[in-house]
Write a sequence for this structure.
């Protein structure tokens, strides 16, 4: 009986840690994203999967709604890296960030989809950097860097870090930075709380749905 229990435990662990490959076609290229820990439901594992908002926003930027070529972009909570990869292939100078524990998954996907041998297929080689919202922000010195876009897709899901997210966006932005926050409405009260907080700190230029109402998009600037 003990041996059977051990076998089941090992099988369950393997299921939790399993990976899968997700193929896409953007910017005339095949993009293959490796998702990790797809059977696990921890916060770290959730950051290693593709979410519908990321797919929808990748389609949105590819459609030409945003002119990203030669723009300096920083992405928050990049997860598997799909959005940052597409932005890079469209000619943007992208810094892709997430928590240190998630970043190896991000970096693996960025490298496999933007490098051919030792050569980068993008106009600017994307940078992958750790960033915990609200902490160690001085690692991103604003006196030397202007970001045209601060992007966060599917980042509105943990209320406890809303203020840290707002603080990080403010730190990375200047008066000419466009802020784009995209999310699916899952818990209306929670999502409404974030929108209220966002409006307290930023001027909202647009608040609209994209890709057949699959995602809400907040577009704003610093006050």
């Amino acid at each position: 009986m003990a041996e059977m229990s051990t076998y089941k435990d090992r099988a369950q662990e393997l299921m939790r840690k399993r990976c899968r490959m997700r193929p896409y076609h953007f910017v005339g290229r095949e993009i293959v994203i490796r998702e990790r820990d797809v059977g696990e439901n921890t916060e770290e594992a959730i950051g290693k999967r593709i979410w519908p908002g990321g797919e929808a926003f990748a389609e949105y930027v590819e459609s030409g709604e945003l002119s990203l070529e030669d723009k300096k972009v920083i992405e928050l909570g990049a997860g598997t890296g799909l959005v940052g990869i597409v932005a890079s292939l469209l000619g943007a100078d992208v810094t892709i960030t997430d928590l240190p524990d998630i970043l190896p998954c991000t970096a693996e996907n960025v490298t496999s989809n933007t490098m051919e041998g030792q050569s980068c297929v993008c106009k600017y080689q994307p940078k992958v950097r750790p960033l915990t919202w609200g902490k160690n922000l001085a690692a991103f010195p604003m006196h030397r860097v202007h970001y045209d876009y601060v992007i966060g897709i599917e980042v509105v899901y943990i209320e406890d870090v809303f203020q840290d997210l707002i603080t990080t966006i403010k730190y990375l932005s200047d008066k000419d930075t466009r802020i784009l926050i995209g999310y699916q409405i899952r818990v209306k009260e929670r999502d409404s709380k974030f929108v209220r907080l966002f409006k307290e700190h930023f001027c909202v230029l647009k608040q609209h749905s994209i890709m057949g109402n699959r995602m809400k998009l907040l577009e704003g600037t610093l006050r």
Summary: The radius of gyration is 18 Å. The chain has a mean pLDDT of 91.
